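Annex B. Sample input.
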Amino acid sequence: MDRIPARLAWAVETLAVAPSDRLLEIGCGHGVAVSLVCDSLRGGWITAIDRSPAMIARAVRRNRAHVAAGRAVFEAVTLEDADFGDMRFDKVFAVNVRLFRTNAVEEAEALRRLLTPRGALYLFQHHPTARRTHAVTDELTIALEGNGFAVRDVLTTGVGTASMACILAGREH
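Annex B, continued. Sample output.
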């Protein structure tokens, strides 16, 4: 079994996945977080996207059993280009994905459309220094608030030799 990076273990713990949750991971990479999330799902499911087809292929291989059981779906697509139809998510999360840098308006619109009315957005940042983590967290908090989201909380923890933060936000009502 692969060693689980502390940042991903903390992220999934922070999500507090309920058995029936419907989740979306943006930038899933190798699919490690998806594996951890699926261990808690009973009736719920996770959709994971990444712009890299190579990463999606690795994530699918890692999560073969979860895909076969209908708990996990993967797609090589960007957030702005994803088309989920009427599908809505209780929790949307991303680990070290820098949203709101180049396509802020489009990304914000997509996230608002994808979240259920009471849904939660979790943006995790983990950098080699606490200073960098804090700076990126501040940038994202400002971007969220400027694009129609209400920041509910900012959680922090020490992970390894660095720090990690989670911005918890929801749609403004």
